[in-house]
Structures are given as structure tokens and as C-alpha cells.
């Protein structure tokens, strides 16, 4: 329930204080003014499907820490698991039974996970996966798709954020646009950037760089341009063409893992990559990630081969949380996933109905619990270039920020997305749709 009149003065004051010690007042640009306007809302606590800010306002939370919380906030199973872990030690940097146990669960549910290695974040897992692919194959180059985000490692940090369409060049020969200053000047030399959802583009790149490509890395669902699903048969074709050309397929499931299906996109779309990465939802709020894949490839990590160190790898507390979360998600043959799909679908249908009622030119793109509103005249968005050219990102931001006043918290960035979880209920859907109705009725977009 929002306090009336709606006030975020404590957040404003905290932001002014934060600016004196933190760059942009925070520890990630996505939490700062670029997404939130003058200042961000400072969150104090969360419970189930709600978050509460420092001013006492409550919000139905559809962002859920960018999808890291499939059970919602402060789930009792996670709380108890973490208490158990902390009471007997925080970190040993040594072999532990919980590491084996969680790896066994992952091996059982992820189709391609013959062997597992733990890391801390999705970025780290992707870095390790591409190093492993290069080390195993002895080839230097890899294909990375426009609009896909695999973390902030130098080799991946290209064409991962929206840019004006003319700056992208012709789709047959995309211009590489680095997403940061300070990259190693040679970092992108072996990164081949091509459009996604276009198997002919993959064929051209393989022919151009024949014998030099170690891997193709892809998201199963494009999740850094809202939500863009693969065309029917695209991932299967990608798997086939990489196998035929002795190129490894790396499936980045940092976002889709433990949200689309128990085994991720690879289970849902029935493809088996050579390597895959997981993060976010794996740790259920704790920094736990992993990469996994074919045993013969993963064995290249053995001592003296492809190096992968990390004192915090297989974080003990995080793995206790991961085990508890996985057990909840896998109960009753994974009914939790059906539930999350149902909640996501019902909300999306309701939003689309509202837009039609008010004559708003917008669509809702979704895959199960993952969804994003796109203000566009197009009936659907199929790739990065269409997103850059056709989606009104400023209008979406205005809409999402207006929802805060009515007690709904969605990602304020059009490039990201929102997510339904096990904690959301039918009344959260009704509350959210009523908030959206108020924003539209009041002409706030």
C-alpha cells in the first residue's frame, strides 16, 4: 500500500549522501539516474512479492533483482538454509560436500551438464567458458550476436546495448561498437559480431572465418533487448551448423536458467549445447554461478590445462541457498515452473487488453515468466536492429517510473525485462493492472 501523498524524500536524501562516496550514487549504472531519473528508490526490505522502500512505500516487485529471485523475497527455505550455513562457517576455500551435492542436482536436471564448475557471477562463467572453448579447440575466434549481453568482460562488451540504427552498419557486415572505454585495444579482434535469429548470417561468418572459430555463444532467449524469442527452428539450426563445422556451441543461460524450465532453455527448446553458463537465479540472491558441459571439454580445466581459479568459487553460503532454492523449484515434478508461466501469461494478457482499451500502440513480448512492454507500432520485435529502430525506450521509462507512484516496481529500462516468480499471486496481477489503468487514465505517458 502506497503512503499518501506519495513521497520518496528519504530516497532523495540518501542519494545526495551516496553521491559523496559512490560514483553515480551506487555500485552499478543500472541502479542510477540513467534508469531512474533524478534519483533511484532506495529499497529497505523485501518479503514474498513485495519490496518496501526507505520512505515506507510498498511495491509489487516484478523486477526481482533482475530475475535472481525465483522464490521471491525472504523465502523461509532460503532463510533457514543460510542460517544453517553461517552457523558453521562462512568460507573455507576448500572442498565441501555441499559443492558436490549441488553439482549432482545440476547434472541431473541440465541436459548438457556432464561436468560442472562453479564461479561467482554470470560474467565470470562466460569468461571461463570462452577461454575453455579456445583452449579446447586451439582456435582464437568466436561468434557473438548483436544485442546479446554476456557480462562486462572485454571480449564480449560489444553491440550489447541499443545504438542508433545508422551506426550499426549493414546487417551483412555489422560495425563493432564497443560498449565501454578502457577495453584492451585488441580485445575485440577475435570477436565476430553478427545479427541473431538469422542462420544465413551464421553461415556467412563461418565461411569467412573458416577454421578459425572456436565457438558460437548465444542466449537462448534475447534478454538484454527486452524479451525476444528465437524464431522457430533457429536454435536447432544453430546447433546443427556448429556441429557440422566442428565449432562449439555455448548457451548462456545466466538469465533463462531456473526460470523457463528446470533445465533451462536447453530443456524447453530441446537443444544440447557443448557448454552452458548459469547465474542469477542459481544463487537465489547470492553470488553463485556455474558453467557446465561435455565431460571431454570440461576436463581441459584439469591442472596444467585451461586455468580457472577463484577463492570464492563454490561459495559455501551461496550453495546452501542454491540447494534450498532448487529443491523448492523441483518439488512435485517442477510444478513451480508451470505456476510461473501461468502468472506471467495472465499478467501479459491483462496488459495487452488494457493497451487495446486505451488505444495505446504497444506490445508485450514474453516467454513464460519473462516479459517486457515495448512501445512500438510493430506487431512484434524479432532482433536487436528492430529493437533499436522501433522501440520507444523513453516512453517505456516514463511509464515504468509512473507506476512507482501506484505501488508497482518494474525494471525502468526498456532494454531489460520483468519476471513472474513463485511468490506472485493473482491479487498481484489485479493490483498491477489497476495501477497501469490509473497511469493510462491519468495520461502520464
Which keywords apply here?
445 residues; 37% helix; Aspartate Aminotransferase, domain 2; alpha/beta; 4-stranded mixed β-sheet; 14 strands; 2 domains; Aspartate Aminotransferase, domain 1
Report what the structure shows.
This protein has 445 residues and is of the alpha/beta class. The protein folds into two domains: 9-74 and 334-441, Aspartate Aminotransferase, domain 1, CATH 3.90.1150; 76-328, Type I PLP-dependent aspartate aminotransferase-like (Major domain) (Aspartate Aminotransferase, domain 2, 3-Layer(aba) Sandwich), CATH 3.40.640.10. Helices cover 37% and strands 14% of the residues. The chain has 14 helices and 14 strands. The protein has helices spanning 9-18, 33-36, 64-67, 76-86, 97-109, 122-137, 199-208, 234-244, 265-268, 295-298, 316-358, 384-390, 393-404, 426-441; strands spanning 43-47, 50-53, 58-61, 115-119, 141-145, 191-194, 213-219, 248-253, 275-278, 289-293, 363-367, 370-374, 408-409, 418-419. A seven-stranded mixed beta sheet has the order 4-10-9-8-7-5-6, with helices on both faces. Helix 4 (76-86) packs antiparallel against helix 11 (316-358), helix 5 runs parallel beside helix 11 and helix 11 crosses helix 14 (426-441). The chain is globular, with a radius of gyration of 22 Å. The two termini are 23 Å apart. 48% of the residues are buried.
Amino acid at each position: 500500500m502506497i503512503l499518501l501523498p506519495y513521497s520518496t524524500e528519504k530516497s532523495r536524501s540518501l542519494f545526495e549522501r551516496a553521491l559523496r562516496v559512490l560514483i553515480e550514487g551506487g555500485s552499478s549504472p543500472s541502479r542510477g539516474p540513467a534508469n531512474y531519473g533524478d534519483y533511484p528508490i532506495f529499497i529497505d526490505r523485501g518479503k514474498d512479492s513485495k519490496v518496501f522502500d526507505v520512505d515506507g512505500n510498498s511495491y509489487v516487485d516484478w523486477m526481482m533483482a533482475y530475475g535472481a529471485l525465483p522464490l521471491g523475497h525472504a523465502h523461509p527455505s532460503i532463510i533457514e538454509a543460510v542460517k544453517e550455513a553461517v552457523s558453521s562457517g562462512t568460507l573455507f576455500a576448500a572442498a565441501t560436500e555441499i559443492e558436490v551435492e549441488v553439482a549432482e542436482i545440476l547434472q541431473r536436471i541440465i541436459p548438457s551438464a556432464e561436468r560442472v564448475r562453479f564461479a561467482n557471477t554470470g560474467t565470470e562463467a562466460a569468461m571461463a567458458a570462452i577461454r575453455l572453448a579456445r583452449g579446447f579447440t586451439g582456435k582464437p575466434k568466436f561468434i557473438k550476436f548483436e544485442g546479446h549481453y554476456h557480462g562486462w568482460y572485454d571480449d564480449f562488451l560489444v553491440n550489447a546495448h541499443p545504438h542508433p540504427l545508422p551506426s550499426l552498419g549493414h546487417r551483412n557486415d555489422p560495425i563493432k561498437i564497443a560498449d565501454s572505454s578502457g577495453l584492451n585495444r585488441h580485445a575485440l579482434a577475435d570477436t565476430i559480431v553478427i545479427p541473431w535469429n538469422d542462420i544465413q548470417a551464421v553461415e556467412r561468418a563461418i565461411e569467412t572465418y573458416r577454421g578459425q572459430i572456436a565457438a558460437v555463444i548465444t542466449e537462448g532467449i534475447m534478454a538484454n533487448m527486452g524479451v525476444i524469442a528465437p524464431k522457430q527452428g533457429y536454435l536447432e539450426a544453430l546447433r546443427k551448423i556448429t556441429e557440422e563445422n566442428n565449432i562449439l556451441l555455448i548457451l548462456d543461460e545466466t538469465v533463462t536458467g531456473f526460470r523457463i524450465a528446470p533445465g533451462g532453455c536447453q530443456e524447453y527448446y530441446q537443444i544440447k549445447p557443448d557448454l552452458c553458463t548459469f547465474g542469477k537465479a542459481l544463487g537465489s540472491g547470492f553470488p553463485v554461478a556455474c558453467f557446465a558441459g561435455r565431460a571431454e571439454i570440461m576436463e581441459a580445466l584439469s591442472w596444467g590445462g585451461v586455468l580457472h581459479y577463484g577463492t570464492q568459487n563454490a561459495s559455501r553460503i551461496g550453495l546452501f541457498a542454491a540447494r534450498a532454492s532448487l529443491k523448492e523449484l523441483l518439488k512435485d515434478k517442477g510444478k513451480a515452473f508451470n505456476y510461473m508461466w501461468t502468472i506471467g501469461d495472465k499478467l501479459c494478457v491483462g496488459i495487452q487488453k488494457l493497451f487495446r482499451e486505451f488505444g495505446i500502440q504497444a506490445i508485450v513480448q514474453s516467454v513464460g515468466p519473462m516479459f517486457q512492454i515495448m512501445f512500438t507500432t510493430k506487431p512484434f520485435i524479432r532482433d536487436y536492429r528492430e529493437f533499436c529502430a522501433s522501440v520507444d525506450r523513453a516512453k517505456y521509462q516514463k511509464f515504468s517510473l509512473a507506476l512507482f507512484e501506484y505501488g508497482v516496481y518494474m525494471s525502468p529500462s526498456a532494454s531489460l525485462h520483468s519476471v513472474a516468480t513463485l511468490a506472485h499471486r493473482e491479487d498481484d496481477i489485479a493490483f498491477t493492472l489497476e495501477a497501469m489503468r490509473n497511469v493510462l487514465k491519468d495520461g502520464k505517458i
